Every structure is written in structure tokens, then in C-alpha cells.
Amino acid sequence: MAPTPSGALRITPKAFHKEIIPVDKPNLDFQIVALGGSAGSLEGFEAFFQHLPSGTGMAYVVVPHLDPSQKGMMAEIIKRYTSMPVLEITDDMKVEPEHVYVVPSHKETALERDHFRLIDPEQPNGQRMPIDYFFQSLAVNRREHAIGAILSGMGADGTLGVKMIMENFGMVMVQDPGTARFDAMPRNAIKTEFVDYVLPVEEMPNKLVAYAQMPTLKSKTLIESHKSTQMVQKIFDLIRNKTGHDFSLYKRNTIFRRIERRMNSHQITQFSEYVQYLQDNPLEVEQLFKELLIGVTKFFRDAEAFALLEEKYLPQLLLHKEDGDYVRVRVAGCSTGEEAYSITILLQEAIEKSGKHLKVQVFATDIDPVAIEKARAACYQENITADVSPERLKRFFTQEDTQYTVKKDLREKVVFAVHNLNRDAPFTKLDLLTCRNLLIYLSAELQKKLFPVFHYALNPKGLLFLGSSETLSGFPDMFTTLDTKWKISLRDESDVPVTRLSEFPFTFTSFETVKPPSVPQVTTVKQEDNLSRVVQRVLLQQFAPPTLIINPKGDIFYVHGRTGKYLEPAQGQATLNVFEMAREGLTFELNNLVNRAAVLKEQTAGENIQIKTDHGTQYVKLTVTPLLEPDQVRGMLLLTFEDMPQPKPRKGRKDSAEEASQKDARIAELEKELLYTKQRLQSTIEEMNSSLEELKSTNEELQSANEELQSTNEETMTNKEEMQSLNEELMTINLQYQTKTEELVNSNNDMKNLLDSTEVATIFLDNNLNVRNFTPQATQIFSLIRADIGRSITHIASNLKYQSIQDDVKEVLDRLRSKEVHLQTKDEKQWYSMRVLPYRTADNFIDGAVVTFTNITSFKDLETSVAATSLYAANIIDIIQQPLVVLDGQLRVESTSNAFAQTFQLIPEQLKGQWLYHLGNGQWDIPQLRNLMNKVLKENIEIKNETLEHEFPVLGYRRMILNTRRVEQTENKPFKILLALEVFEK
Questions:
Q1: Which domain holds residue 608?
Q2: Residues 349 and 435 in one domain
Q3: Catalytic residues, which ones?
């Protein structure tokens, strides 16, 4: 299996809606840092730019995941914390270093050839993924100069973009979830395992500057360096020993780029130092292995290609299928399963449209067991809504919180398995084989070996679906290209010669670890290290017989001397097997001697072997010697050819004797062949008997395994019943949760409408004075936006003169008593009554405060008006020259004129609030006055010119003429009585 489970994402994902392919090579002189976040990220943006040193030479792009309907104020806020120019992105704006750019919330933003592109979004607001969108564009245009940072936020936006940046050799930082106000987005990014640094936001700028100052390694120089090549081989050995996977057949450029990325992340500059670091840190070997397996995959990646499959090629594939047939599909490099499920969905829909009853088998394989486990779980983040239509989401997925799970009927059609494409046997009789963007990581030598296997695995007229960057050149006799752009091909009906599959499996054979010695180079004596090696070479050339080094199967690994008299190329596909190349007469003895030497582990030899050459018969001595050392050739055989003279006939014999001698020789030869045949037969019988014993033993083991499986099956059935019972309980609980959820939704709706209908500005704060929520009316007093949720109220500007709101809130939280204050706006046009109460949970736990603002401007205006009216009335009463008393409904004095106090010699300051009959120490307790005033109170009549005579103890006799007037006020205030007097002395 290739290291990239679903291959490199070629910036054609559905999320872009338009393919972004850089035509001109962009200016890569500076890095671009993309900062993504949603809820609670404003504090992170502020902290990042507060701690960012000046003169970094980078450009910064802020990508907030905000509601497009809200007016963005991000640019104005960030300007407070940085001296760099802060601009909101417009279409075709050029990106420059030492600038900060803010992505608009109502557009999709991409980067193309150093310019920003604004695109109208196709997804609804709730399904848009602006961070993923920009991160992917940044990765493909800036590659190793792309840096992504994920800050606080809810949801999974950014996870796909993180993988994309990592695949293109960029760097990724994530805010430490423990420091994030909302940790869902950072945790989802960390789950991808493609993150370089997990840091608090305050530490990100310094790490960023240190990373940017790392000297870049030149991969080309590394490849040309013999020392670096040796180091890479050591790295391959470390990975193979740790994981069992060999990456030596993968493209070196990609390998070097991945290693370079890991070195930069650890700030290691020397290649040898990194090799030592790997040897000392086994976890780094696993991390490098995972990075070599990095795969950016998604549902319906390259939407146009999948549309072609859906509309054209899959219906053609199903035309020749009958009811009850199987449709077999292989998805190589399935990664976490998105592509496998996408193919299965298209197949299911195509079968339904055809009206046939067909069965679907999809085999999805990958080299990474962790990815396979995730694919089997079939649970994906909510960001798949950008790629899967709402109809398919509803039909094939079940939504659980913020995740989507593949439904059981679709999941059961896909079988996931760990499988190595260049080692394990292929799945056969396939109707469709997809291997997308996987071969681009393999060397040309390995690709040439894989295509015959693909041909062998497919049925005639089967489809091969490759990535857009891969090619089938060199195999026109195997596949016919149907679509050039999206690399969809048709398997030809002609069979591939078996010889083209003879080397499968390609690795891990019985002699996989054997490394044949290098062919000696022709060099001069001046280039040799010492004289002894030159002498050894000369002696070998002059005196050593023709020699081969082979394995027990006859494969030739090394040739010394001229072997043309004994071997010749066989007809058909070229091969280097000594049994197929042996000349006539040599095959019999060669097979015998090689088999004996391989089995007995001892030297064997045959003399006077007759070989028919182009110049007649040649007698040869053949010697086969097993090699036990050195380790590089252990297990191989040394095959030596020595020419022998033709045996001379004996002199003096007659012709008849010569003919008899020839017959005897022929008989001896036949007897020798018969003996060899008997020996081989006996050996075969013994091997067969041994195999039968092994088969019997295997059969017994299988029977035992079958019994265990039956027992396991019974346990499984029991577990199934328990699971069914548990499932019913879970369904009941789920129903209860759904009911509770509906009640909660209704309660939330009721609460929202209640808060909106009150038209009272309300702000909910936590114990740290951070904003938890607010009503729309609160924005008229404080400069609040939805992005301010999570920020401290002390950071929010208000239009009130009062600056001690935080002190009042803290006082309420400390004393747990409400507090009310009347406040005026700065423009002195509005008055508000601010009331602070403790925020109590259902279990009576204090979890913050509630601050309400009631507009009391009209009340204040009325209060001012009443005060002015009262003052006006008091002045009128004072200016009246005759005695006048204003009484309330209980005949208590409200106010008096100065003439009244002077006439009856009373103190004005002591009159207010006294009962009429208590004035002058009871002098006004006059029965006639009581009768008159009772009529005024009870019968609601007015007194006009009523004469009252009374002898006052101090003043003496007085005759008074009384007039009253009952004055009605508002409903909430009682009436008042005006009592006017004309006083006459005796």
C-alpha cells in the first residue's frame, strides 16, 4: 500500500467549487500565516498580535468563522494590537509581507498567484467551512511557505485544511485546548495527528519566528550526496524495523521533503543529527511513518470525476450484469474511508436507477491500521456537509451531535482491511479498481510492476480509476483510456503474459534480505585503494572459471566470466533464470546438482556433462557450492563451469567393439538418468508424505479452530441478543432525549421571545465578568457583537457616563444582593436604570450575574416636570396675599401661604404634614370646621363663603369666611383640598 492512503489532494476539492491551479509560479519569498478560529477566538487573535515581534517579514491572514449576517468589526479590533496595516480583503488584492488581512465573512476567500480571490459561497451559512477553504488554497499555492494556526472555536472547520498544509510540507500550530475558551476546533485539529506544535497563543509568535529562521535543506543536494543517501537508507531500515513497511521503492524527492519538514519542526539542521534523533526517539520514527502516510481525502473529491462515474461509466458497467450478480470494487489507499463510501453511494444509486437486483462488495484497503480503524468506525466531522449533498446526508448518514455516522446498510457493503499494495496478493475479479493519487509517490520501477497486477485483478471491461496527476503511459496493450483528464481507463480483454506477473509479490520473498554484490567497476590502478585488490582482480580474470551466483530458484544475481557457451537467452519475455537459459544437455544435471546442494547444504559436482553449443559438443564439469558467508550472500549458491577435454576412445578396438562401447555408454547414461529420476521421485514422495502429514495437522488445527468459531458464534448470538436488548433500551433513552431536546428547544425559543419582547437590555456575565450572552437591545448601550461572547465586559466600550459597572457586579457577587443604579448616557439624552442580580442555576448555584438596563428617560423627564410644577405652584401660593392651605385626602397640610402663617402666628417650617385640627397646638380643632370638612371629604361638596367664628386663645376672636375646592389628580395619586380664608377681627 502506498504511503498516502488517498493520495495528494490536487486542489480540486468540491469545497473550492472552482479548480485553482497555479499557472505561474508564485513568489515564495515570504511565508503566509493563516489564523483560523470561531467562538472565543477574538482573545486569541488579540494575544497573538500583542506578542508578535515586528519585522517578521511574513503576511498574516485572519480567517474568522463568523455569521455572515453580522457586520464584521474584526479589522478595526485587530488594528488596536498591531502596528502593521490591517486590511479587509477585496477581490484581486495582492498579498504583501508585513500586512494583516481579514477574510470577509460573506465570501469564500482563496489565494491564487499572490492575489486574493473572493467567490460567492454555494453552501448555506450553517454548512460553510471558510477556514478549510482558505487553508487548502494557501497550501497548494504556497506549499512549504504556508503556515496554519487553529485557535479557539466550535466545530471541525480547519481539520481538512490542516492535512492539506501538512501534505504540502507546510507547518501547523494549534492552540492548547486547555487555554482555549472553546476547545472543539483545536481538539479536532489535533485528532488528525498532523500538527507540529500545540501551544498557548502567547507562545505561538516566538515559535513562528524560530521556525521561519531555520535554514531550508536543499533536497536536490541531499539526493546527490552519497552520505545523505546512506542516511536515508538508515531511516528506511529504522522505519522497516519499527513498522514492517519498506519505503525504499518510493520517490526519493517526496521522502526527502517529508524528512526535511520533520527536521524543521525539531529545528535540526544536519541530516546525520536527525538520524541520531530517530535512533534515540522511537516515537519520532512512528511520527515520521505517519507523515509519510499522510492522506488528504474527502467525500466525492474531484466532483467532476465522480460526476462522470455517476452519469456515464457506472451505468455502462452495470449493463452486462444480471440479477443476483456481484459488483466487486477495490479502493486502494482508502485512508479513513471517505472515498470508499463515496464509490459505494454512487454504486447504490446507479443500481437503483438500473432496476436490477445486484449485490455490492467494496474492498477498501490501506497500509495504515489507524486509518482503517477510523474508516471502520464510519464516523465523520460535520465539515463533510461541504461535500455531501443534503439529500445524501439524510439518506446515508445519521447525525449525532456534531458528527455524521454512516448508516448500517451502507457500512455493511464495505470491507476494510490492512493491505500493502506492493507486497500482498491482489483482490481479483474486480469490476472497478480505484487507486487515486497514490502512484505519484511510487518510483517508476514499482509502478511498472503494479499495472500488470491491476490488469490481472480486473475483469474484462473493468474500470481503472486513477488520480488526475497519474498516467498509464507505457501500457497501451493493457488499458484503453476513456477520459484523459480524470484518468478513467478500460481493461483490455487480452490476458497479460504470466511472465509479467512472475515477480509478484515484489518484496518479502524467501530471499528478500539478500543484497547481491555490486558489479565491479572497471577502474584504473590509480583509483584503487591498494595493490592487493588489483592483484586479486587480475587473478580472478585470468584463472577463475566462469561463475554464477544464484538462489535456489535459479535467479541469477551475479555473473563472472564468459558464460555464453553454457547459457543462452530463452525465447519470449526476457528473464535471468539459469534453468530457463541453460543450453541443451545441461538442464538435467543442473537441476539435480542445484537441488542437492540446496537441500544437503554441501558442495555437489558433475563431470563430463555434454552441452550442445554452436560449435559442437562441449564437456563440462559443473560444481555447485552453498554460500554460508558473508551475510550478504548467505543462502545463495555458487555455480562454476569448468571445460573438460573430450574422452578419447581406446586404440586397437574394432568397429563393432566401438559401437558396443557407444551403446554401453548410452545405456550407462540412460541408467544414470533413470537413477536420477528415481531419486527425484523418491524425494517427491517423501515431500508429499511430509506435506500430507502437515495437511493432516493443519486439518486438525482447522477443525479445532472451527469448534472454537462455533463456540464464538454461539457467544456472538448471545451477545447479539444482549445487544438487541441494549439497543431497545438505548432507543427508549434516545426517545426520551429527543423529547427533552424538543422541550429544551421550545424553552430556548420561549426564553428568546421573552427576552426580546421585554425590550430590556440584558447582559449575562460569568464569575470572571466575561460575556456569556446578551439581548439585541444591549448593543444600544455597549458596542457588542456576537464575536464578543467570551470577552470580558471591561474590554467592551459603552456610551454611559458611569465607569464602575465591573465594581457593581463584583459587589453583587460578593454580597449576593441586587443593586440598582440610575445612569445617564454620555450625550445626556437617555437615562437607564441598571439593575445587577446574581445569576442562579437551577440547583441554586451562583454562576455569574445578570445586568439589566431599563430605559427610564420618560420617568426622569416626568420627574423633572413634576418638580418644576411643584416649585411653580409653591411660588404661586407664596405670592397670594390671603391665607391659603393645601390639604391632602387625610386633611394633612401639604403647603400654606405666607399670609396664613403670619395671620395665625404660626411657624411655616412646622406646618407641613400636620393634621389640620392640630395646628396651633389644637387651636384649629373647631367643631363647625370639622363638620364642614367632613362634608368636603365624604359628600364631595365645595364650601362657598361659609362664615366661621372662633375665639383663638392667643389671637382672640376671629370671623372667617371659608371657601374650599377639591382638586382631583391622576389615578395613582389622591385628591387635594384647597382651603382659602378671609379673616376679620372683631
A1: 530-644
A2: yes
A3: 38, 65, 157
